[in-house]
Each structure stands twice: as structure tokens, then as C-alpha cells.
Amino acid sequence: MPRALLSVSDKTGIVDLGRGLAARGFELVSTGGTARTLTDAGLPVTNVSDVTGFPEMMDGRVKTLHPLIHGGLLARRDHPADLAAARAHGIGLIDVVVVNLYPFEETAKKPGVAFDDLVEQIDIGGPSMVRAAAKNFRDVLVVVDPADYARLLAELDATPALGFRFDLMRKALAHTGAYDTAISATLATINLTGDRFERSDVARGFSRATALDDRIDLSLEKIKDLRYGENPHQKAAWYKVADVASGFSRTMILQGKELSYTNLLDLDAAARIALEFDEPAAVVIKHTNPCGAATGDSPADAYVRAREADSLAAFGGIVSLNRPIDVATAQAIVSTFIEAVIAPSADADALAVLAKKTNMRVVVASFGETGAAQAFRPADVEFRSILGAVLAQERDVVAEARAPWTPASLPDGLKVVTKRQPSADEWAALRFAWRVCAHVKSNTVIFTDARRTLAVGAGQMSRVDAVNVAVMKAAAAKVSLTGSVAASDAFFPFRDGLDALAKAGATAVVQPGGSVRDAEVIAAADEQGVAMVFTGKRHFRH
């Protein structure tokens, strides 16, 4: 008689599977709660303790860890020595293993769960059986997902194909791998203080690494396939991260066409800028660069300011807000063509207005705190793929702009290097410009006032080119740069860039400093009466 071992935490479909296996002549061997479920359904069940000759003990910690179980899983049917050893020691072969593991992740998500309760959800026997059966996949069918029960029964009605067995093996080992990664990521949030285990929301895994560890385990689960990647001939998919409870791992798409790969990149770029601000802020993105960013007295005011910074480029753009969408904001958004909008939430009345643009994607997502609190939590780790490898870095935060800039309270590293000090209005504008500039593709120079961008020169090969592009954009939008301030994400290697922005009308500039020709650039600023601030910190974004 063939033998099936069933031991599951998720009992979905287990009775029907048990009936199907029994009808096909299988002896059912089971443990604890699974055995009771099958017995209550009227199925004959052999308890694991009857196979091993040992009772379940230590609150169920020890039940399947026994040679009479693992010998039955690991014996190779085409190895006479394995079969002889099994006969000599009274080991019955096991042909089917149906196991899924203790609900560790579900327990870990419960608020206030005790550390000792969490430890008890670390399954030992389950992963051991799954791995043993998977290793011997040619002879043992291992099933970890209730969705595969019907296919298992269908395959048993014929001769299970090698491809089916291999698929089950891969799925089983992926199941135990994800389980171990979840445990590792959760334990990384536990701190030992004296003899107390205390949980923190700061993990060392993907989402909240406190250091670039020697090993970083990723557990990714597909959210959905995307229509295509950057181009129609490229396949693409969107994944969520197991230990992240916010951001693009936890979104709701309220309306509109399917999100594309490039939509998601643009939404990310827009959200990063909006989250820099405590006050209502809005950003309009095209191709991951802002064509407008602004703060306002309300979300609607901020959005209109951002849109009008470059209304031509805003057409077909991606919008991010750091406040819920209300009716006034929704009305402003639908007054022009916008591809997608992301915000923390949207009022019911606002959704009715947004619904007038049926194709426009409306996405809501929680990114935790906004503004200073969000920007200065422990640094996230970000990953980028290159050919054949992966890069990791801490997320760039504009720490030096955490608080308002005034002559009496400048952060460490910030200094005025010119004869003229910025005015109070220029200080406010320089801080605004610096926060936005950090999120524009390098090399970049941007012009702003204290509440919105005026012109953006993004991603150029030289700083002079960046200034010239910004000036060209301002001219096309009929925006005056007279009296503006400018920000450069890296130092000016020559004075020509400083001369160009002064000629455009900027009266103050913020930049990292650090060039061998800083003195030449400072002299150029003094010649033209431009106030210049060095931050001592570069913000490239490649």
C-alpha cells in the first residue's frame, strides 16, 4: 500500500485531498491537528507516533524527527542498498508528503506578540520533511500548496511525470527558503536589552537596513505581471517585499488603465520629492525628472503651482501629493491630461471627480511619515541591478535641510562663502531648491523661488549645459528667472556655470563645493553680487 504523510498548518482542502488519496489506496499518516481533522471527517489515519513508536513530546516540538520517518522519505527506490537498509530497520517507504509550515509570518504581524510565542512558530519538523522529500523528488511527491492538490490527484491517476515532480520540488524548496528568510528578517527587528527581547520597526533586511551587511536576504512576491517593461519587447513584473508594510509594496489602484513599468518608476520619483516636505506639496514628473514641484497653502494650491511651473511639460505627466486628494485638488488635476496620480488617500467626493478621467491611474499608498520625520528615519537600503550583479546603497536623504536655514541656525557643514549673505527670502528658497535638486537626475541645475521650481535643467553632461537647458525651459514657459535662486547637485568645476546662472537672473546659489577651483567660482559670485552657500554634501542621482 502506498503511503502519504500529511501534516499541515493551513488545512484548506486537506479533507478532500485525504479522501482522494484514500480512494486511490493510500495509507494516511498524520500528526496532531491534521490527524484529528482527518479522523473527524471519518478517514482512517495512522498517527506518526504509531509509526515511530514514540509519542509526540515537548509540546509537539518532537514528533516527526525520527529515522522511521526520514528513512521513508529519503530511501532511493533505484538504490538496492537503500531499500535493503529500509527493510532491515523496518522503515516503511513514504510516497507522498503534504506539508505546509507553522504560520510564523502571520504570527509576526500581530501587534505586541511575545518573543517566546514567536519562537514557538519556528517550524522544525515541517521544513525537515519538505527538504527530505524534495531531495528525493524522483520517488516522493512533495506538496506545500493547497492549490496543487487537484493536480496531485490527477497525476496519481496516471504515472506522475518527472516534470511534475520537479515542479513540486522547486516549489517546496522555495517555500522553505521564503520561510527561513521571513524568520531571519523578523529576528533582525529584535533587540536584546538586558534579558528582555524587544521588537523594533527597524529591520536589517531589504526595507530598513542599518548597515550594508555581508548577507542581505530578499523575499519577493509577485504583485502582478506588467504589460511590458521600458519598451514593448521587454517583459516585466511588479513584486512586493515581504518585510515592507508601506510604499509600493502596499498600494491600492483605485481606477484607470494598468500601471506600466515606467509609470511605477515615475510614481516613485514623484513620491520621493513630495515626501521631503512637511507642508502640502505636489510634484509633476516626466521621465523621472520633475517638470514642476511646489508647496502651497493646500494640496490644490500646491498642485496648481507645480503644474504651472512648466505647464507644457506637465501635459501627460505623473503627479504626487503628500496630502489626501480633496475635491478642489481633484478638479485641478482633471483640468488637464495627467497619466497617473499618487497620494496617501482620496476623499469619496474627490474620487467621483477623478472618475471623469477613466484612463487616469489613481494610486493610494502609505509611505509612513512625510517630511522631516520620513526623511530622517534609519536609512533604507536601495538596490540596483547591473549586468550580472546587484548594487546596494543607503537611501540618500537631504539631512542638511531637515530644519529651516537661517544665519543663526545653520546645520553642520553649511557655510556662506561669498561676501554677500543670502537674504531671509533667499535662505528659504535655497533650502527648497536643495531638497528638490537632490531628486533630479545628475548633472542638474535648477532655479526656484521659495515655494516652487521655476526651471529645471536635468541630466546634462556639463553644468553649463544644465544651466542652458533650464534657461531654455524658462523662456519657453515665459517664466522670469530674475531674482530666483539656483541649486547645483555637485560643485562647479569652472566659473562658467556660475556666470551662466547669474546671467539668467539668479541672485543666490547653493552647491556642495569641493572643486579645486572653488576660489575662482567664489570670486565670480562676488563679482556679480551673488550669494553662495556651500553644503559640503553632494546629491547625485543616477
What structural keywords apply?
Rossmann fold, single chain, 23 strands, Cytidine Deaminase, domain 2, 542 residues, elongated, 36% helix, six-stranded mixed beta sheet
Structure notes:
The protein has 542 residues and is α/β, with parallel strands linked by helices. It folds into 3 domains: 3-187, Methylglyoxal synthase-like domain (Rossmann fold), CATH 3.40.50; 245-374, Cytidine Deaminase, domain 2; 403-534, AICAR transformylase, duplication domain (Cytidine Deaminase, domain 2), CATH 3.40.140.20. It is 36% helix and 20% strand. The strands form 6 sheets. It has a 6-stranded mixed sheet with strand order 10-15-14-13-11-12, sandwiched between helices. Helix 8 (125-135) runs antiparallel to helix 10 (162-187) and helix 19 (495-504) packs parallel to helix 20.
